[in-house]
Design brief:
Number of strands: 20
CATH class of the largest domain: Alpha Beta
Number of domains: 2
Domain Sulfatase N-terminal: 30-338
InterPro entries: Alkaline_phosphatase_core_sf, Sulfatase, Sulfatase_N
Structural class: alpha/beta
Pfam family, one: Sulfatase_C
Helix content: 25-40%
Keywords: Hydrolase, Signal
Protein name: Sulfatase
């Protein structure tokens, strides 16, 4: 009898251990793969109207997940946009503006917490591949901001001796492994392939533990380059070839996740850092009918594609018209993974409710459009966008550039403000401020509150809650 009781006890213990093991496996937090594409415009995907090439992997992501049609990059320029993405803050809150280069003595402040740091504290393996652009000195590179490994370039791919306008202003472009330069002036036609392969390798190596992979593609930022796999494949020249190779990259990641059985436990996010650099003509993308492009706070400068896929969590084929921003990625990932939010104030809000199927949710009602050093150029609330008079870039009325050379454009054109109903007028063509003084007053009140918080060079406000950028001593 005692032997039978002991055998029953062993069987029960084994069953309990097995259940506990299965429970712990099921409770493993999801992996995260975040793909940030440089200068890809709203109209650069087949699903948003691109012609002359196909983007089957982007399209399949949309069919199997969610497309966010009113998603905004944190700002309309490289460095500031990345700062907002990785910290969940308006870039100007943490001292960022514009795009820093090899002469900068600034970078991401160590006091700010990145997505990688938050997930690393949760037990994740973390890696960054591709373009960083948040400071090139060692103290600012990814391994000092929560990433276990890094392989990529420290700033934009045009910041090298062959720059089309400023020849020989930039030093050789470094390719960095960890914090050390391993190559200079690398073959840019291999960028998309090499950074994709490194990402896939990282996923395979960490398939049995939670991981965060940040893949920041340098393309299609000029100078454009593509591997032989896609050279001459599109009907839109080199730019189309580059987008096709980026689509291939997304396909490689999705295939890897599927082959490893990780689709149901991985949140895949793909988006762009700002709109197309229109001055480069046939080497630039499309804003899909939105006004202006990169370097402006109009819709074409900041509204960009955003796709997310998470099998079994995100319903298939969802289009969300809710306002969303790159700053919302951090709190969304935090809520999805059970990580902790940063100790300091952030500006992002979690989109997880939308991702789980509540497409009527409106976690973000307001978007502030800052540019230049610290100019509040526009504010959106609901369907309404109020643009303030401001000097800025325009490409309207100018012939675009060709084959890698930029057209003239204008950098200090005085834009006249107005009120736009983005539901009916996403191209921001029809100023209806005189018809809706109550809405102008409402958005002006929001802008004044933002000026008190973050400042505004256009109105002379300093702002109370801005934090210093990281610096290096001379």
């Amino acid at each position: 009898m005692k032997k039978k009781q002991f055998l029953v006890f062993v069987i029960l213990c084994a069953a309990m251990f097995g259940a506990a093991f299965r429970f712990s496996s099921q409770q493993r937090p999801p992996n995260v793969v975040l793909v940030y594409i440089d200068d890809m415009g709203y109209g650069d995907l087949a699903l948003t109207g691109a012609a002359g090439y196909r983007t089957p992997n982007f399209d399949e992501m949309a069919r199997n997940g969610i497309f966010m049609s009113h998603y905004y990059a944190p700002q309309a320029v490289c460095t500031a946009s990345r700062a907002g993405l990785l910290t969940g803050c308006y870039p100007n809150r943490i001292g960022f503006a514009g795009a820093i280069d090899h002469t900068a003595k600034t970078g991401l402040n160590p006091e700010e917490e990145t997505i990688a740091e938050l997930l690393k504290a949760r037990g994740y393996k973390t890696a960054a591949f591709g373009k960083w652009h948040l400071g090139f000195q060692k103290k600012f590179l990814p391994p000092n901001h929560g990433f276990d490994s890094y392989y990529g370039i420290p700033y934009s791919n045009d910041m090298w001796p062959n720059h089309p306008v400023n020849k020989n202003y930039y030093p050789p472009l470094p390719l960095i492994e960890g914090t050390e330069t391993v190559e200079t002036n690398p073959d840019q036609s291999q960028f998309t392939t090499r950074f994709t392969e490194r990402t896939v390798e990282f996923i395979k190596q960490n398939k049995d533990k939670p991981f965060f992979a940040y893949l920041a593609h340098p393309m299609p930022h000029v100078p454009l380059a593509v591997s032989d796999k896609f050279k001459g494949k599109s009907k839109q020249g080199l730019y189309g070839d580059v987008i096709m190779e980026l689509d291939w990259s997304i396909g490689q990641i999705r295939k890897t996740l599927k082959d490893l059985g990780l689709q149901e436990n991985t949140l895949l996010i793909v988006t762009s850092d700002n709109g197309p650099w229109l001055a480069y003509g046939n080497h630039a993308g499309s804003a899909g009918g939105l006004r202006e492009g990169k370097g402006t706070s109009f819709e074409g400068g900041q509204r960009v594609p955003c796709l997310m896929e998470w099998k079994g969590v995100i319903p298939q084929g969802v289009i969300s018209n809710s306002i969303a921003s790159g700053m919302d990625i951090l709190p969304t990932i935090v809520e999805a993974t059970g990580a902790k939010l940063p100790a300091r104030k952030i500006d992002g809000v979690s989109l997880l409710g939308i991702l789980k199927g509540d497409i009527s949710a409106r976690p973000r009602e307001t978007m502030l459009f800052y540019y230049r050093k610290n100019s509040l150029e526009a504010v959106r609330h609901g369907d309404w966008k109020l643009v303030f008079d401001h000097p800025g870039r325009t490409n309207e009325g100018f012939s675009p550039g060709k084959d890698g050379q930029p057209g003239p454009g204008a950098e200090n054109f005085m834009h006249t403000g107005g009120l736009y109903d983005l539901r009916r007028d996403p191209g921001e063509r029809y100023n209806v401020s005189f018809d809706h003084p109550d809405i102008v007053a409402r958005l002006t009140k929001i802008a004044n509150e933002a000026r008190e918080d973050l400042g505004d060079d256009l109105t002379g406000h300093q702002g109370r809650n801005r934090r210093p950028i990281g610096t290096v001593k001379e």
